[in-house]
Each structure stands twice: as structure tokens, then as C-alpha cells.
Design a protein that fits this description.
With 437 residues, the protein is α/β, with parallel strands linked by helices. Helix content is 46%, strand content 15%.
Length: 437
């Protein structure tokens, strides 16, 4: 059995049946399965995930009972086979079919004949398969073509022009660049570029943040440069959060939803490892991730603690020069990296997120000193979680004013989709009712 396809199958089944995040289980299974072509595995896994609805639509045209009646194991093998036939030109048709049948013999026993028949039907009939009629139902057409839950498309259609929405959907299916943040505490940019190029990586400077580098090459995280803390992997959109926070040496900074710690470390580096950072998260187990990153990067000013960010810590009121609220969100801005997000059904928990985000922002604002800075950020593209949360907060807290905000878009900025808003506390902004006539 081909180890590459077997590894891809395990990853896709974990995502399908255990709701696992693809990036985590992909790395796990590549390490455990040791496939001879990790690049092939990644292409197959992400290709199937990015096109899941389209692949299922094709299967529905070939199987009278439809995909919902097919077991997860059978459905996964069929998706893999059809993706190879439709998109992977380097894979001969016979190989795509034969290897799928081999997988079926192992994981779908008794169904290998069915798998073989469906794939051969696709080869015979694929030119006759067409997408839903766009003029009759544009949402369904876009949902099938780009493989998104309809509610996401409807949300974006409410806020953006149709052509822009289609560009955004398309960008979500593109493979993101690998971007790293150099660690100023250990190395300068030109020196890191030179060392990476000596290791045969292709390096380009970032377009938004001065300490960002875009990298092409394999084995980036296996070398000594990473293990010795010379850089971290972080998209430029995420880096921009620490840039807009603009922490100074000697500041006291609170990062209230800190895990896994990427922004916390970026803040520490910008402070030249001088000052105090209190990094908290509601999940105590996640604090270990922050502590391990601090050790790797040589950061010593971070204090971790478990804390529910919706609650106010009375001991920290007006103690922080700068506070970062990187709030939990729907994650619609990082679909390029976690395509499984596209298939999450809308839930009451999602609908209640803006309320939770506002509660966290309101509680965290109590920590800001007069004259201090408060930054709110999310990795989503949803005005209800972004602009409206900030608007509600500012209406209720007149001693804060907006300095600047930005909504980064994958199709415009070639980054993840991030919202960042920088606010300042100025108690003189509060109107004294006794002076109003």
C-alpha cells in the first residue's frame, strides 16, 4: 500500500470523524507514517478539504443514493480518488483508480468494487457534470464551486459586492505562503536571510511588517535556526497586531487570550525583552505552549496564568500600559490554513460570540492605565465580531477612543483575514453631566 495515500487517508478521517484541525493531525501523521513524499500528502489532504463540497456534489451525480448514505471511510476514499483524477495531473488515471481500490481493500472491505465503479464512471462521465445553475441560486452555485457553508457566503454577501465575495472565496482555497517573524533578540534580518539562503531556502521580505520574511523550501522547522529560536512562523496579519500595539521597553503589557503565544512572543521581542508581560488563557494546559516558546526564543519577561478573560482581575485594574484582546472568533480569516472551518455549521454558540467578545473587551479595558492603549483583534472576516463589537464597546466606554483600525483580506492583502483596532484611554473624553446645560 502506498504510504503517501495511506497517510492522507488517516488525516482526512481524523478531520472527518473527530473534527480534528488539519494542520495538527497532518503533521502528526506525517511524523508517524513517514511517507516518502510529504508534499504529495499535503497536496492531497488540503486539496480534498478545500474542495469537499464540490467532490461530494460530483459523487452525488454518480451515486443514486448520494454521499449521505455512504460511510465516512468510503466517502473519504472516493473524495481522494476523484480529487486525484480531477486536479492532480501528475497522477495517471490508472494509478488514481488502482491505489484507491487498494485503500478500499484495507479500509472499506467489501466495498472495493463499488469504489472502482464510481471512479470509472467519473472518468467516463466527467465532461457531462456541470455546476448548479447560478441564475437560479447563486448561493448554492458558489457553495458548491468553492466548497463553503452557505451561511458564510450569505454573511459576506450582506457586507461586500458579489464579485468581491467570489474573489474572497477563491482566495480562501489558495495555499498560503510560509511567513516567519525574525527574532530581533537573537539575529538581525540580513544575517537570517543569509543563513536561510545558505540552507537553500528562497527568501523574500514581507510586504507589511519589517520583521517578516516569506519562505519557500522544505524542512524549515527541522533545522538549528528554528530550534535555536532565530525565528517563529507567523503570518504578517498576525504580526501586525503587535506592531499596532506598539509596546515600549519597560511597559507592563497584558495579553488576555494569549495561547498559543505567537503574539505574546512578538510583543516581547518588540520590547527587547525588557518590561513585564502577563499572558493569560482560560485553558491552563495551553499555558505550557507559551512557556515553551519563551524558552526557545530566549524571552524571560512573560508571566503566564490561567484566567477567564470575561472576568475582571481586581488586582490588575489600571496596572497595564497596553492590553491586547485577541478574542476567540469564528476564524473565517484563516480558512486558507484550516479549510475545515469552511464546513462548520452555524450554531447558537457562534451567534453568541459577539456578546462574549464584548464581555472580554469590557473586562480587559479595566486594566488599561489612563493614557494607555487597548488593542482588539480577531482572525475573522465578520463585521458582527469586529467593527460592531468595537462600536458597542466605544459607545459604552466613552473614556476610550479609536486611533486606527484595519481589516486585512486574503484576496487584497495576500495575508490571513485579520481585524485589528487600536484604542486609547483618555478620561478627559467623559462628559461631566453637571457641566451640561
Amino acid at each position: 500500500m502506498d504510504a503517501n495515500r495511506k497517510t492522507a487517508y488517516y488525516v482526512l478521517m481524523d478531520v472527518e470523524t473527530k473534527q480534528a484541525y488539519s494542520n495538527f493531525v497532518l503533521n502528526h501523521h506525517i511524523i508517524c507514517g513517514r511517507p516518502d513524499s510529504p508534499a504529495f500528502v499535503r497536496e492531497l489532504v488540503y486539496g480534498v478539504l478545500e474542495n469537499k463540497y464540490l467532490l461530494d456534489y460530483i459523487i452525488d451525480t454518480l451515486v443514486p443514493t448520494g454521499t449521505e448514505k455512504i460511510k465516512a471511510s468510503d466517502r473519504t476514499v472516493l473524495r481522494m480518488g476523484i480529487y486525484q483524477l480531477k486536479y492532480m495531473n501528475s497522477v495517471p488515471e490508472y494509478a488514481a483508480v488502482n491505489e484507491s481500490v487498494v485503500l478500499a481493500k484495507r479500509f472499506c472491505r467489501g466495498r472495493e468494487g463499488f469504489i472502482n465503479a464510481v471512479l470509472r464512471s467519473y472518468i467516463k462521465d466527467r465532461l457531462t457534470i456541470s455546476l448548479p445553475d447560478r441564475t437560479e441560486d447563486e448561493i448554492r452555485y458558489l457553495s458548491v464551486k468553492y466548497s463553503y457553508q452557505p451561511w458564510i457566503i450569505e454573511l459576506w454577501m450582506e457586507n461586500y459586492e458579489p464579485d468581491f465575495v467570489e474573489e474572497l472565496l477563491k482566495a480562501g482555497n489558495e495555499r498560503p505562503d510560509t511567513v516567519i517573524r525574525l527574532n530581533w533578540l537573537k539575529i538581525m534580518k540580513d544575517d537570517l536571510i543569509k543563513k536561510l539562503e545558505e540552507k537553500h531556502f528562497h527568501v523574500e521580505k514581507g510586504t507589511i511588517c519589517e520583521n517578516a520574511l516569506r519562505i519557500r523550501g522544505s524542512g524549515l522547522l527541522e533545522g538549528k535556526l528554528y530550534k535555536h529560536g532565530m525565528f517563529s512562523v507567523q503570518d504578517e496579519s498576525s504580526m501586525l497586531v503587535s506592531v499596532m500595539l506598539d509596546p515600549k521597553q519597560g511597559d507592563t503589557v497584558m495579553d488576555v487570550c494569549a495561547a498559543p503565544g505567537g503574539k505574546t512572543m512578538a510583543i516581547a521581542e518588540r520590547m527587547n525583552n525588557r518590561g513585564r508581560i502577563i499572558a493569560s488563557d482560560i485553558y491552563k494546559r495551553k499555558l505550557t505552549l507559551i512557556e515553551n516558546e519563551a524558552k526557545r526564543l530566549g524571552v524571560t519577561i512573560v508571566e503566564t496564568r490561567p484566567w477567564d478573560a470575561t472576568k475582571v482581575d481586581s488586582s490588575m485594574i489600571e496596572q497595564a500600559d497596553r492590553v491586547l484582546v485577541d478574542a476567540p472568533c469564528t476564524g473565517l480569516g484563516v480558512i486558507r490554513r484550516k479549510p475545515e472551518i469552511k464546513y462548520k455549521k452555524r450554531t447558537s454558540e457562534m451567534d453568541s460570540l459577539p456578546r462574549k467578545q464584548l464581555d472580554i473587551l469590557s473586562a480587559s479595558s479595566k486594566y488599561v492605565k489612563p493614557g494607555g492603549i487597548l488593542v482588539y483583534s480577531t482572525c475573522t472576516i465578520n463585521p458582527y465580531e469586529n467593527q460592531r463589537v468595537v462600536s458597542d464597546f466605544l459607545r459604552r466606554n466613552q473614556n476610550f477612543s479609536k486611533i486606527e483600525s484595519v481589516q486585512l483580506m486574503p484576496n487584497v492583502n495576500h495575508t490571513d483575514g485579520f481585524f485589528i483596532c487600536k484604542m486609547a484611554r483618555d478620561d478627559s473624553l467623559i462628559t461631566n453631566p453637571s457641566t451640561v446645560k
